Amino acid sequence: MGHLQGMRSVFKCVLFVSITLCAIYLISPSVKLLIGFKPIEKCHLESAKMLNLDSSVDASLNLQSRPDVLTCTYWKAAIIWEGMFDPRLYDEMHKMKGSSVALTVFAVGRYLDAYLHTFLNSAEQHFMVGLPVTYYVFTDMPEKVPNIKLSPLRSMKVIKVEKNSRWQDVSMMRMKSISDVIESDIRHHCTHVFCFDVDQVFTGRFGSEALGDSVALLHAHYYHLPKYLYTYDRNPNSKAYMETGDFYYHAALFGGSWKNVKALTKACYQGIMEDKQNNVEALWHDESHLNKYMLLHKPSRVLSPEYCWDTSIGFRRYIQVTRLLWAPKYYDTLRTP
C-alpha cells in the first residue's frame, strides 16, 4: 500500500512539473523568445524520392528548401512547409484523381454564434479551393447555422447532436459522431476527411498539398519545446498513457483518407469510453487519445505549425505564411453552462 501511494506521489509530481513549466512558457514572452532560437533537427533524407510517398507528386518536394526547419520524420513522412511544394502540381494531380474532401466541424452552444460564420466564410476563400468540398456541421441548434453562399462543387450538411453539459464531453464525444457519419455518409461521397475545431480562421491557402492517408498537425506551442515538456497523459491508468512520443500533435485539426480517419476516431472513442468505465479522464481529453493513436499509427503526412498558428506566440522567422489562425478564446463565457 505504501509503495502504491509512493508511485502516485511521483506521478503527481512529474505531471505538476511538466504542466508548470509549460504554463511558464505560455505566459512568459521572454521564455517564448528564447525557445524561438532553440536549434532544431534536420531532415536526414537527401531527396524526397526517399520518402514513404503519399502520392507520386510528393517526390517533387524540396526537402532542402527549408534548412531552418525539420522537413521529414524519422519514419520518412514529409513535414509540409511553405516553399517545399509546387501547389499547381498537387491541385492538378488531385483533380485528375477525383479527390473530394469532407470538412467536419462542431459548433455547439455559444460556439455557434461566436465562430461558425467566420469559420465557414474563411474556409470558402482558402480551404481546398478547386476541389469538391462538403461541410458537415455538427450542432445542437441546426436552425441557427448561418446561410453561407457556397462556391460551385461545394455543399453543406447539418447534423444535429446533443449538447453535453461539460465542454470536455463535447470535445471527446465528437470522435464517435465523426466515426458514425463517416460510416453512414462520408465514405460514399468523399475520398478524404479533415476535422476542425470551429474557433479558428483560415487566412491563407490550405490546399491539396495537405491531403494524405493520415495527416497530423504539429502543435504551434510545442514545436520548439523539448520533449520532456510535452504534456502527454502520463497516468498509467488511462488508455491515453504515454511516457514519451515523437511530436506533440494538435487535435484542432486532423485528417486523412476516410478509412484512416474512421479508424482513428473509432480507436479514440473506444479509449475514451474505457477510461470512463474506470473513472479516468485523459489530461487533454481527445487530444491525449489522438497523440497516443499517432504514436502507435504513424501519420503519413505531418503539417507544420503554419497550418494552425497562434499569433500570441509572437514573431517566428520559420513561419513564412499562416494558413489557419487561432481565433480569440472566450473560455469564461463560452464554456459556462
β-strand percent reads 5-15%
Quaternary state reads single chain
Q: Please give the alpha-carbon distance between the first and last residues.
A: 40 Å
Average pLDDT metric: 89
Largest sheet: 8 strands, mixed
**Class by SSE composition:** alpha/beta
The gross shape turns out to be globular
Q: Which sequence of strands runs across the widest sheet? A: 1-9-7-8-5-2-3-4
Active site: 287 (nucleophile)
Binding site for an alpha-L-fucosyl-(1->2)-beta-D-galactosyl derivative: 219, 231, 287, 310
GO molecular function: hexosyltransferase activity; metal ion binding
Binding site for Mn(2+): 197, 199
What does this structure look like?
The strands form 2 sheets. This protein has an 8-stranded mixed sheet. The chain has helices at 2-27, 29-36, 87-97, 110-126, 167-184, 258-277, 286-296, 331-334; strands at 78-80, 101-106, 133-139, 154-160, 192-196, 200-202, 214-217, 253-257, 301-303, 324-326. It has 337 residues and is an alpha/beta fold.
